[in-house]
Amino acid sequence: MSSSTTAPAQSPIADASPLSLCAREPLVPADRLVAEMVPPPRFDSVRFETYIPDPGQPSQTEAVRVLSGFAAGLGGAHASGAGKRRWFAKKPAAPTGPRGVYLDGGYGVGKTHLLASLWHATPAAPEQKAFGTFVELTNLVGALGFQQTVRTLGEHRLLCIDEFELDDPGDTVLVSTLLGKLVDAGVALAATSNTLPGKLGEGRFASADFLREIQGLSAHFHPLRIDGEDYRHRGLPEAPAPFSDEQVTKAAYATQGASLDDFPHLLDHLARVHPSRYGALTDDLKAVCLTDVQPVPDQSTALRLVVLADRLYDREIPVLASGLPFDRLFSEEMLNGGYRKKYFRAISRLTALARDAKGLVRA
């Protein structure tokens, strides 16, 4: 389910200094938020055919079968009847069967790969399908307003929500209400999710928690369990150890399109940039080089770093770092707390990006 990434080409020491994330404060217009609701670059080319099920996990093969059928069933007219000539102003009959699927499984089992494959396989124009994380969806509501978001997404055939957040009651109620309006408009739904604080089991999610939190929408979702271990570490070599400050700096100067930042300063900068802009923060970057990686000081900072790690991973941007290894970013208290799953996902993704960046350092 992973995609191999080739490290950006190096050149002799570049004439210009590396870019800096700390020097960027992007502004993102609302229309860009809508236009960018498509699978991220890392998942541009994924399909059901490129998902490689673990032979020891039959639920993965079953997930491909069920989701392929779900996508095929979304062909034809919009479920609300939009686009058809209507002689009577009669409310259309509700579609039969669940109009949503919920992918239930641990991190690294390929849920995002499958969700993006569903988006690609659904027989509808790209502008009739939307794909985004829960955070991106809440940002869209903030930018457009609730009613405009309903109108904008209500004409879609499918809405895919990756990493549905169940740890913020206010946002959960907001999005649950939004999804209710979209279901009424005939939009099909697909989601993956996080678990509630204190409900984290050993590597698995709780579909009962998800269905309870979306309350009246539960009947619209068919839970689909996907078992397995984190593919990013399945049969792969150990993550490279951090490099020295000098090695990271030299690689940044030798790599066109690389950024170079001191890690503590970057964490401070993230507090001044809204997380909805973290994707734009990485525009045109070919690599991210960080010096002096240290433990994250508090939970608010840690959650911002999780969002940045997701955006870097989505965009396949290698991360080269000095200081502490990424598996020591978060304290034991954080790793045992309610956001444990998020932090393990960030470690997993940053480790994968560190592997991608290994070739930036010359022997």
Characterization of the model:
The protein has 363 residues and is α/β, with parallel strands linked by helices. It is built from 13 helices and 8 strands. The chain has helices at residues 30-35, 58-72, 111-121, 134-144, 146-154, 169-184, 207-213, 245-254, 263-270, 278-281, 299-314, 332-335, 340-357, and strands at 100-105, 129-133, 158-164, 188-193, 221-226, 258-262, 287-293, 319-323. The strands form 2 sheets. It has a 5-stranded parallel beta sheet, sandwiched between helices. Helix 6 links the parallel strand 3 (158-164) and strand 4 (188-193). The longest helix has 18 residues, at 340-357. The radius of gyration is 21 Å and the shape is globular. Residues 81-95 and 196-205 have low confidence and may be disordered.
List the helices and strands and how they pair.
Elements: H1 30-35, H2 58-72, E1 100-105, H3 111-121, E2 129-133, H4 134-144, H5 146-154, E3 158-164, H6 169-184, E4 188-193, H7 207-213, E5 221-226, H8 245-254, E6 258-262, H9 263-270, H10 278-281, E7 287-293, H11 299-314, E8 319-323, H12 332-335, H13 340-357
Parallel strand pairs: 1-4, 1-5, 2-3, 3-4, 6-7, 7-8
Helix pairs in contact: 2-3, 4-5, 5-6, 11-13
Overview in brief:
This protein is of the alpha/beta class. It is built from 13 helices and eight strands.
What share of the residues lie within helices? 25-40%
**Strands, count:** 8
- Termini separation: 30 Å
Average pLDDT, rounded to a whole number, is: 83
The fraction of residues in strands falls at 5-15%
Q: What is the strand arrangement across the widest sheet?
A: 2-3-4-1-5
Describe the largest sheet.
5 strands, parallel
Element-level helix/strand string = HHEHEHHEHEHEHEHHEHEHH
Global outline: globular
